## 1
Amino acid sequence: MYVTTSVYDGAMSEAMMGGTQPDFEFERRFFVSHPPQDLLKGSDPNVIVQTYFLAEDGYALRVRLQATAFQGDLPLSSEGKSVIETLEDSFDLCMLTVKGPMVGGTRYEAERELDIGIGIEMCLRGGKTLVKKRYGVWLDEDGWVIDLFCTPNAPLVIAECERTGPVTDLAIPSFCTIEVTDDARFSNDSLVHNPYSTWVESFQSELRNRNHDYMGGFGDNSLSSL
């Protein structure tokens, strides 16, 4: 049983950010073999549709559409552009984002909110698109998001913890299999070009020869009992 204080919406509040939008994000990401169904059950996910107009060498320019706390049925077999058309009336947020390469759990990120209608039309006209269902939860002192990716990245599940500074001394939930923070294969801007379904078998073979792997240099990692 996981002890939670409230549902985490997957984003840092203005108070958490000190009233300003940071130019860097600090996060650690983990591959999840078996999603924690007790955390996901009864929770409405945010459906996130990300269209990349540039995604190369860790640099990314994308438009993100979000349907917050979506209550409809969106199978994990759903794909890119068709989801945009299906959820056109459900999107309530659109962001233009620029990112730089990940370096040791830190990545440059700058965002600007866009008109939703303009964002939809841009995404339908160009770029490569991925879709994921995002669940948020508080575990101890940290907000975590658990992303279930849709086709062609299904059945990939990634959990991530984001803070306003380096993510050190982290209590890692037991559902996290291995850390993939610095594994470029699992970045969204890589997955949009090289989807998980095309290399899942080789990765599962690789995984059988690995134990719980966590990054060093981030204080004292511990495996949480949660």
## 2
Amino acid sequence: MATTIKLEGEARSEFGKGVARRLRVANKIPATIYAGGEEPAFVTLPMRETTLALRHTNALFTIAFDGNTKMAVVKDVQKNPVKRIIEHIDFLEVKAGEKIDVEVPVFVEGTPKGAAVAFVDIQELKVRADVTNLPEKIVVSVEGLTDGTKVFAKDVVLPEGVELDVEDPEESVVTVEVPEDATESTAASEAAAAPANAAAAPANAAAAPAADAK
């Protein structure tokens, strides 16, 4: 379920690329907290703590700044394409008891039967949940599933209180099948074994007269 993280920030009133560069030099990240139709709040956050916090998917943030406290979730993260450092974060303010739509990464666990392998067709599944109950991941069990089996969105077991929110519940989330290279490898092994078996037959037949001679 949702990880709650508290960050201590500061309100900001200066904007622009120059200001953003100075903040990054000071190990701070500029951020904006949007609140529906209300005026957004502009803050700066500590770079190290915030970067570590963003490793948690769908975390719930409590952001304190200048005597204010806002509860929010991450809406968008802008990173430098070369240095990969965070340049700006957009948050969405939420309220306790509110339900929101989030995209949750899909993982598989378990081992299919035989040479079959599980392939994740949808990397993230859209669900709706309470802001205090946002899942960090969705795990699909493929234990014992056979070649050709599909797990559809409607069949995914979700955490309690979490609802599926996709356009097509019949969409495949995970497919279990035997990879083509595994099938080709098996066929090649069988083909290689066939000449060996054929070569063994004349040797056995040649041994028969010797046995009769005795």
## 3
Amino acid sequence: MNKNFVEELKWRGMLSQIMPGTEELLQKEQVTAYLGTDPTADSLHIGHLCGVMMLRHLQRCGHKPLALVGGATGMIGDPSGKSLERNLLDEETLRHNQECIKKQLARFLDFESDAPNRAELVNNYDWMKDMGFLQFAREVGKHITVNYMMAKESVQQRLNGEARDGLSFTEFTYQLLQGYDFLYLYQHKGCKLQMGGNDQWGNMTTGTELIRRTLGSEAEAYALTCPLITKADGKKFGKTESGNIWLDPKRTSPYKFYQFWLNVSDDDAERYIKIFTSLDKETIDALVEEHRQDPGRRTLQRRLAEEVTVMVHSREDYDAAVEASNILFGKSTKDSLLKLDEQTFLDIFEGVPQFEVSKDKIGLPAVELFTTEAAVFASKGEMRKLVQGGGVSLNKEKLAAFDREITSDDLIDGKYLLVQRGKKNYFLITVK
């Protein structure tokens, strides 16, 4: 064992609750631990990242991580932290999602080597699908009392008004299903520790209780949780106006992913760089110090965005995202515009005023197109003045003559014109 896993989580701000005896167990042997992920989509999002990083640190400290995909539980929905039941998946969708998730996890965990602590992916659908209700009632249900289950906070919240429609029986049994996962992995994989977010504590302790009641009091099973990550303003982490920030580049472009981390607040950057990177304490302390000397340089945000983008995507994607960011704020050329894929191009100019013109207007002089057809300039006189003063660019090149004809050769991706008025004002024209 090189590093102490619990100490590692503590200084990173990734430890919330821990059962007595957990730390001692981790110090005396190589421990197999699991963390569950919900396969409702074919990609993880950054809300999953804290759990994934826990598995990564666990493996780096010499222990064995099991990433559990909740195929069976994904079919019924978990009440904790949710006020509504989620929709249920069929098996084909489930298997597809599992494969996609495994590919993403392989960027964080070693599944391939011969190391004794190499990671494994398991799916609870594999051991739940053939279990009948009577068998479940006999083998699992008889060990845990309803009183015990009712006392859980996640159940209490659902019963006491947070959700008007109460709690379905399906959801009520969720903690038994999750408890059975732990028992199964304990018996078949020697797994003694379950990890997860703070909202899972109730389900996790049901698992340790089930193991104890099924196998006797000498069975060692433990649990630890990480805090739920929030933003400094208390809002939920990882959600933006447009929804989740996904790890799949088809759902969230690497540029947008990079921008998310680059734009977090100073307080958040200081917390996130500990949680979402593998940088060591000395490096992070030095970065924090440097950032405090001159917050305007955004040292923490830049390094955080770099580390996470390279880890989730690649060094090339990171470089491309930085170059794309310079298009809006720095000096860049028409070449850098042409290098962008369409999604990144649209992501960069998402917030700028946009116009649509029809294809038959191509061939008009610029002054006609950018005043009458798309109101980039208030009047032809204003545009003429600005062009003469060198203050207008088309696709990052100075517009030399206000009446020059705009042709289809000017279109980016065959359908976009990017007009710039002064340094900061961009306008995007889409040709339909």
